[in-house]
Amino acid sequence: MSRLFKQRRSPIHGNGVFAVATIPAKTELVEYRGRLLTHAQADRMYDGTTDTGHTFLFTLNERYVIDANFEGNVARWINHSCVPNCRAVVEENQQGRRREDRVLIESLREIAAGEELTYDYGISLGERLTPRLKKIWECRCGHARCIGTMLKPKRKPVDRSKNGTT
Description:
Blueprint: E1 5-9, E2 15-19, E3 28-31, E4 35-38, H1 39-46, E5 57-59, E6 64-67, E7 79-80, E8 86-91, E9 102-107, E10 118-119, H2 131-136
Parallel strand pairs: 7-10
Antiparallel strand pairs: 1-2, 3-9, 4-6, 5-6, 8-9
């Protein structure tokens, strides 16, 4: 198969990945690669870096994180969008070996040649989403339905007692 995409400067942010030919919907494009870390290792290495608004960390599962800062590939340059044309799918190892789970980026719809590949990062921080953090993690996708941040909104618990249920 010929190359379907290439890396170049992006109007969204820094580097990006662009289709060089029409990509059909539901096409597996690339595996997100990098060094495998435990969550504890990633926390030690990157503690206090939520103020940068930049990361190449991808949560693989409850045990591991992929760190594309080391041994990463072109997938690390795929930018966030609130209305993405791709999605990240975690493929679990059939034998239950969590170290061998993989993250695959696949197209959600047909992508035209020249279009930038994007997916929703859905970043979850373990702290309150303040206006300052939302600004640091600002989304620059430019879509009319942009929510303004790459951070996943936190949901407040529903008080079911008001609805007459317990």
